[in-house]
Amino acid sequence: MKLLDQKVTLITGAALGIGAGIADLFAENGAILYLFDLDGEKCQAKAAELRSAGHQAQAFQGDVSRAESLQTCVDAALAAHGRIDAVINNAGIYPRRAFLDMTEAEWDQMQDVNLKSLFHISKLVLPSMIERRSGKIVNISSVTFFKGMALLTHYVASKGGMIGFSRALAREMGPHNIHINCVTPGAIKTEGEVVHADPAAIAAIQARQCLDRRLVPLDVAGPCLFLASSLSDGMTGQTLNVDGGLIMY
Ligand SMILES: NC(=O)c1ccc[n+]([C@@H]2O[C@H](COP(=O)([O-])OP(=O)(O)OC[C@H]3O[C@@H](n4cnc5c(N)ncnc54)[C@H](O)[C@@H]3O)[C@@H](O)[C@H]2O)c1
């Protein structure tokens, strides 16, 4: 029996990077996938690739910071299946900016995409999860919340906010048997990281990991699979750190 057999799962930011890696592993484990991404073309390509391998996947173009575009995807899943079993909130942005150069608009965009998106999507999926007394939500935060990181004040604040949001909502939703957990990736080799991160800084992080190799999206996808499956039914409000042993708290 596959871990996510016929589980209706929505993954945001699924066209590339960590989200695409989660989509691959979840598809292999039997999930019915709703892939959501700002980049409609790449999202369609990812869904088509999965379907051609015999999996169930549909693509939706939209912006996680806009409730109405998320609603189209949520409505489609509920209309087709009458349920959403799991949501992986992975879409996120991480442009560097020195704090004193940071504009209010840049701060707001970071919070809207990385943090306020959880407000929107949770409002949309929780009513049907409460009705069915079943649901798994996994929020992709970042190890930078534990470490702090220069040039990423807006990002680290948003990622810490995701953990706070998840803990508080886990308490509120626990009585409804809804599980809300976080994953905090370390330095993961993705399309976005290549654009935004300094190679010397990545090498320095790798040197401080226990595991001497570059982490890849599949390393994050495994713990997400665990948290979306019944294997983690006794866990909520938790944060799993996937950083190759960079930090240990
Ligand atoms: N790569 C890392 O080292 C790393 C480390 C810690 C945490 N994370 C987190 O993991 C998540 C994925 O990171 P990644 O490296 O795979 O990123 P990436 O840039 O490679 O991919 C992100 C995907 O999200 C989509 N996206 C961006 N903004 C969106 C929006 N407003 N609405 C819908 N989709 C949107 C992009 O189009 C892209 O397909 C992010 O939340 C990031 O903060 C990444």
Question: How would you describe this structure to a colleague?
Answer:
It contains nine helices and seven strands; from the N terminus they run βαβαβαβαβααβαααβ. With 249 residues, it is of the alpha/beta class. It has one domain: Rossmann fold (3-Layer(aba) Sandwich). It has a seven-stranded parallel sheet with strand order 3-2-1-4-5-6-7, sandwiched between helices. β4, α4 and β5 form a beta-alpha-beta unit. The protein starts with 7 loop residues before the first strand and ends in a 7-residue tail after the last strand. The mean pLDDT is 98. The structure holds nicotinamide-adenine-dinucleotide. The site of nicotinamide-adenine-dinucleotide has 28 residues, from α1 and α7. Nicotinamide-adenine-dinucleotide binds next to α1 and α7.
